[in-house]
Every structure is written in structure tokens, then in C-alpha cells.
Amino acid sequence: MSSAAEALPPSQPALSQAERVIDTFVAPTKAFTDLRRSSNWLVPAVLLILSSIAVVRVADVKIGFQKIVDNQLVLQPKQAEALDKLSPEDRARKMETIVKINRTISYCFSAILLVYLIIVAAVLLGTFNFGFGAELTFNQCIAVTMYTSLPSLVKGLLAILLILLGATGNFTFQNPIASNLSGLVDPSSHFLYSLLMSIDIFTIWTLLLAGIAFSCLTKVPRGTCLAVIFGWWVVFILATSGLGAALS
After folding, report:
1. The whole model's pTM is what?
2. Computed over its alpha carbons, how large is the radius of gyration of the chain?
């Protein structure tokens, strides 16, 4: 029987979901080992949804989607150029449509995020089970992606704080706070800007937690688990940065 199905160590009592949420930040090994017993992920999923909606709502009220879209267009010169070629009336109508679409997508982002995390869970399930002979369940992998995404709650709270303090000049949902390396380059360097934006403190935190989680649930060494997680991340950011640069 694999370690993913082993009983908890006698010294570790069962945790509630709320306790696992707290321990994800202060005692991650303890939190993720408990996923062997129960892989329920409802509480972190709800927290991620509420955090996403809260950031969008505060930004909507305090900044407004018109300003947010204007900031985003700075990073999309091709789209901005196409808009500038329109007549003032057509541009105004087009911008109104873009603002409405962005507002809708932003408020629905939490659902998009959950789907994305489930896809990530499926990829990691296949990687560890077929690549390393682990016996993880899909639900365990989903639980890992949900719990290890909890650092985004801290990022969301900081974003809300900055918005309330009035630091909204260049706000975008893609880059709400200065927690990454994108500030080192001009936004016009699209591929490099997108790449450095991905090198984010909270993203690295999430990746480290994921490596710890899979080492707790499998017999795969922690270093190997971290290599797998960071390897997939590098593939992802290179692909998305390249695509973003092509469409900008």
C-alpha cells in the first residue's frame, strides 16, 4: 500500500478543514499529511472564491472597470492601436463592450480558477501516478491544489488594502501588487514582462507548498516533488508568456 493511503501517525490527531487551512500557513507538513485521512477541500475552495470576489468588488467600487481596462490596454498595444483607429463614437461603443466583458469575466474568475486548479490536479495526478508509481487519488490532488493556493488569500488582502489606501494608478487584476519582478522591465517588453510577472513571491510560496504536499502524500522524495512542480511551472509560464506576447 502506498504512503498516500497510510494511516496518520499515532501522534497526529485528525484535523478539521479549518485547522488544515491554518496549518497550511504555519505547519504545512502536518496539514498535508492529514490529507491521507480526508481530502475534503470545500473550505479552501470557498475561501478562494470569496477572496476573488472581494478583490473584484473593491476594485470595481474604488477604481472602476473603465480605469482598470485602460490600465490593461497599456499592456496590449495591438488592441489599443486597433481601438484608436476607430471613430470616437465607435471607439466609445467598443470600449463599453470591453468594459462589460471584463467586469463579467472578473466576477466569474473564481469559477475559472477552480476549473484551472482541477485541471492542474489532473496533470499532477498523471505525473506522479504514471511517472513515479504513486497511488494518489484525484480528490487528494484537487485538495493539494486548493490548499496550496491559499497564499493567494494574503495577496488578495494586500491588494484590497492598497486599493483602499488609494494606490490604484496602474492596477490590473493580472498584477495587483508589486510582489514580482515585472517592475524591473518596461511593460512594452511583453514576453519578458509577462515572464517576470510570473516570478511572484506568492506563486513561489504556492509551488513550495505543493512540493511539500506531494512529498507528504507519496514516497517520492521531497526534492523530486519540488522538481516536478517547478518543472511544470516553467513549462506553463514559458507557454503563457509566449502566447501573451504574441497577442499583445
Report:
1. 0.88
2. 20
SS (H, E, C) the chain: CCHHHCCCCCCCCCCCHHHHHHHHHHCHHHHHHHHHCCCCCHHHHHHHHHHHHHHHHHHHHHCCHHHHHHHHHHCCHHHHHHHHCCCHHHHHHHHHHHHHHHHHHHHCHHHHHHHHHHHHHHHHHHHHHHHHCCCCCHHHHHHHHHHHCCHHHHHHHHHHHHHHCCCCCCCCCCCCCCCECHHHCCCCCHHHHHHHHHCEHHHHHHHHHHHHHHHHHCCCCHHHHHHHHHHHHHHHHHHHHHHHHHHC
CA neighbor of 35 nearest in space, from 6, 62, 11, 67: 6
Question: Averaged in consecutive runs of 10 residues, what is the pLDDT profile of the chain (248 residues)?
Answer: 44 86 96 94 96 95 91 79 83 90 93 95 96 94 97 96 84 88 74 83 96 96 96 90 66
Using CB atoms within 10 A of its CB, is residue 61 exposed (0-12), middle (13-18) or buried (19+)? exposed
